[in-house]
Design goal:
binds magnesium ion; GTP-binding; Rossmann fold; 45% helix; globular; binds guanosine-5'-triphosphate; alpha/beta; 7 helices; 6-stranded mixed β-sheet; single chain; 222 residues
């Protein structure tokens, strides 16, 4: 029991590290977001936007918060590379799906790609944040418009599949979807998005602690 309690104490006091995977279509602004997060939180700034090129593979960045380390993994979004995303879901504590809110012509494709992400059983239970990026661009859709666009896309898809009974499924899907607006280029909303991710991964840790405490109380009674 002593070792169990010692282990529990060490578990409670160590700086927990969480992995956050950033996905989204090519050009959505994922790497710009990652580099902005580095600049915002680290003493060494991230790459300036004019030095960022399309990602082939992945980029990573770590930030240290008072009680937590967040490790961000930004994956390339070009169609040929999207097949690698699935491999990263297993180790992910949270997912951020970045949308280019100014690229209205590609929104349908964006929702198809998003739907594929949602269809993966590996992401069940992982906090998921939808980021409507490029809010600094006056042509960008707002957070509400992005949410409506997804709802509309989903409804059309149901209609195409002639699954009219699925409408309640659709409403629960979009109602539980967290959407935030950001400008990865200028940093607006980036701290709020990082706070959301931090709180969600912390909450999932709290659940583990409750489970462990429950395990301890059960083992005491054995
Ligand atoms: N106006 C505006 N442009 C942005 C913003 N974020 C990114 N961009 C621009 O969008 C383009 C693509 O940005 P990236 O960060 O390379 O996009 P990505 O999602 O990493 O793309 P892949 O690596 O190909 O998957 C660049 O020209 C960025 O400067 C933003 O918040 N506002
Ligand atoms: Mg990139």
């Amino acid at each position: 029991m002593y070792h169990l309690l010692k282990g529990f104490r060490e578990y409670m006091t160590r700086k927990e590290e969480f992995s956050i995977v950033i996905i989204g279509m090519d050009g959505a602004g994922k790497t710009t977001l990652l580099e902005n997060i580095k600049t915002t939180y680290n003493p060494v700034p991230g790459l300036p936007p004019n030095k960022i090129t399309p990602t082939v593979g992945q980029n990573t960045g770590r930030i240290t918060l008072p009680s937590t380390i967040l490790q961000f993994i930004d994956l390339g979004g070009q169609s040929g590379i999207r097949t690698i995303w699935d491999r990263y879901y297993d180790g992910a504590d949270a997912l951020a799906y970045v949308v280019d809110a100014s690229d209205i012509d590609r929104l349908n494709e964006c929702w198809e790609v998003f739907d594929n992400v949602l269809a993966s059983p590996k992401i069940l239970g992982i906090p998921l944040l939808l980021l409507a990026n490029k809010q600094d661009d006056p042509t960008s859709l707002s957070v509400e418009q992005i949410r409506s666009s997804y709802e509309e896309w989903w409804q059309n898809r149901l209609n195409t599949l002639q699954r009219s009974s699925g409408s309640s499924d659709q409403s629960s899907r979009s109602a539980s979807l967290d959407v935030m607006g950001i400008s990865a280029l200028h940093g607006n909303g980036v701290r709020d998005a990082v706070n959301w991710l931090f709180l969600r991964v912390q909450n999932s840790r709290a659940r583990y602690v409750i489970d462990f405490a429950h395990f301890l109380s059960v083992s005491r009674n054995i």
